[in-house]
Amino acid sequence: MRDARSILPAGSFAHRVLSEAVRNCKAVFFAGLPGVGKSLLLQQTALLSHAAGRPLHLLQWDVARQGFETPEILARYPEVQGTTHAAIRRAAGLWVRGAVANWAAAHAGDDALLLGEAPFVGHRLIELARREADAAESFLAARGTLFIIPAPTLAVRQGIEAAREREILQPRHAREAANAPPNVLTLLMQELRAAGAALGVPGARSEGGYDPDVYTAVYAKLLEHRHSRPLVIDECWPVVASPYELDTDAVELHPSPAEAADALARVELLGAVELERAVRQWYLSAEGEVS
13-280 architecture in CATH? Predict the structure, then answer.
């Protein structure tokens, strides 16, 4: 029986892309700005994975960062105007490379699928896109690891923003109440434009709000060392449940208290000035070059 949460029409382009990814990939990551449909596509892919009988493991920014948001850590690194502290964003990035390497080693011989979600912008798991000489790199760069860039048209993006305003006021899931509101989405697009201009992406310097071409081009540039593809979304699907509703048997990857403490200790070695520079120039590699 078809799950009521499955909303992608069978045979649609999005359904074909996600079904192919479930059949052929070991890991699928949705990379993009908040408000482009990452959570919904992750949910739909999870349903396809369940139907295919593949054990599912999840790696999501909004879940992973919670391992760093204990009362003790937040007392030292509080949110600033609703934004996760730079130290936590950097620490989560240091943790995620090791988490991916450990997962890849543990599941090299089985049928498990790693399904992830990463915003990148503002230093939110951008480390997944970077080339680094560590145990995670061969897995992240492999053909079996696919980064999908959800790319709604302008009309669909406007529909997503309208739906987001309703969800914040009347959330169906606890995580919906914490979604970035439309004004923050606009600020993040401006931050992405600035990053694109620094990376030499054509058209990124122009002012304005969401532009699917500029947005997609910047993420493609960030992911130039990964196997990636844009997924154009040109219709609003009839969402019947919160996109955050996932199967309870999916395993969430998140840092243990010891892992969180270790990552923060490494961040603290950077010093305040270096931390601020790294997070402000999140689109650059550790060596100061394009990620």
Answer: 3-Layer(aba) Sandwich (3.40)
